[in-house]
Design brief:
The protein is an alpha/beta fold. It folds into two domains: about 150 residues, Medium-chain alcohol dehydrogenases, catalytic domain (Quinone Oxidoreductase, Chain A, domain 1, Alpha-Beta Complex); about 140 residues, Rossmann fold (3-Layer(aba) Sandwich), CATH 3.40.50. It has eight helices and 15 strands. The strands form three sheets. Strands 3, 4, 5, 6, 7, 14 and 15 form a seven-stranded mixed sheet that branches. Strands 10-9-8-11-12-13 form a six-stranded parallel sheet, with helices on both faces. A two-stranded antiparallel sheet has the order 1-2. The longest helix is centred in the middle third of the chain and has 23 residues.
């Protein structure tokens, strides 16, 4: 099969146009491994790339899709073989390298993770970058001292989004009990409690504008995918020696805060970089996601769409109208 379908984004007179086209495998960049993509997923970063964000994708035309799961067709790497089921997330996939919204990708071998036993290709894309980021955030929090014996609340912001939804589900599966979900969306209480949240709060209660450098102690740990003043407020409310995992910027990339949470309460701000995460840690986390961290509610988090239906979903996620995850069947 030399031709395949792909979502292409073109820049025309300052506007960005999306269309599904037939592409040739010969159009793909050089690389070690050729993969027939079966599933991808929709992330906020994909939507930005598909809308012409030059901070994500420098040159167009381009095929977005920072996640891909499929079957190896060709490989020059001695550890990866034709027929292997594999996952690719992060690195440059879907940013400046043609991504998972095409039925074929060609990538370096070091980007490729073999699908662990315990999850299917589709389930791996229910996770995708969002789920991997959630797992990495919990891994970082536990490395900094968090454990299931904690009695204080654990806050998850952006809780109806992909990272937030999966963070709640993974925390719950890992044995954490006091999970507080913050959301600005009404009517999501049942959804969030089914994932494992013990309490739902309005995100505006986390948007402190008092100017105070410290606030009453509320959180043993935080997984924040929002950034901006929500993150600043969370830092000011975290308990002595607690940790905050920062992994997103849907509110803002700007963080205006003081050093007081760090020097007076010993709060730790932990970055969760899923793009260039060490290969050894990637393997550890994907195996956890396939076993002890795999939520029972995983399939409740995702809706499946075709490549042809993806255009509408891109606009919805940009406007904050997606709950959970969108899995793209190629």
């Amino acid at each position: 099969m030399s031709k395949f379908k792909a979502l292409m984004v073109y820049e025309e007179k300052g506007k960005f146009i999306r269309s599904i086209e037939n592409r040739s495998i010969n159009d793909l960049p050089s690389g070690d491994v050729l993969i027939n993509v079966k599933y991808s997923s929709l992330n906020y970063k994909d939507a930005m790339s598909a809308s012409g964000n030059k901070g994500i994708t420098r040159q167009y035309p381009h095929t977005p899709g920072i996640d891909a799961a499929g079957i190896v067709i060709e490989s020059v790497d001695k550890k990866i073989f034709a027929g292997d089921e594999v996952i690719v997330t992060g690195f440059d996939l879907g940013m400046n390298t043609p991504g998972g919204y095409g039925q074929f990708i060609r990538v370096p071998a070091e980007w490729v993770i073999k699908l662990p036993k315990g999850i299917s290709l589709k389930e791996s894309m229910i996770y995708g970058t969002a789920g991997f980021t959630s797992a990495l955030s919990l891994y970082n929090l536990e490395s900094a001292g968090l454990n299931v014996s904690v009695n204080e609340n654990i806050l998850v912001t952006g809780s109806t989004g992909g990272v937030g939804s999966l963070s709640i589900a993974i925390l719950s599966k890992a044995g954490y009990k006091n999970i507080v979900a913050a959301t600005g969306k009404s009517g999501k209480e049942i959804y969030l409690k089914n994932l494992g949240a013990s309490k739902i709060i309005d995100r505006e209660s986390l948007n402190d504008k008092s100017g105070r450098p410290l606030l009453p102690l509320r959180w043993a740990a935080v997984i924040d995918s929002v950034g901006g003043n929500i993150l600043a407020t969370a830092l000011k409310s975290t308990v002595y020696g607690g940790s905050v995992a920062s992994c997103g910027l849907t509110q803002s990339p700007i963080l205006n805060t003081s050093v007081y949470p760090f020097i007076l309460r010993g709060v730790k701000l932990l970055g969760s970089d899923s793009t260039h995460c060490d290969f050894k840690i990637r393997n550890i986390l994907w195996n956890k996601l396939a076993s002890e961290w795999k939520p029972d509610s995983l399939n409740q988090i995702a809706l499946e769409c075709s490549l042809e239906e993806l255009d509408e979903k891109i606009d919805l996620i940009l406007n904050g109208h997606i709950t959970g995850r969108i899995v793209v069947k190629l």
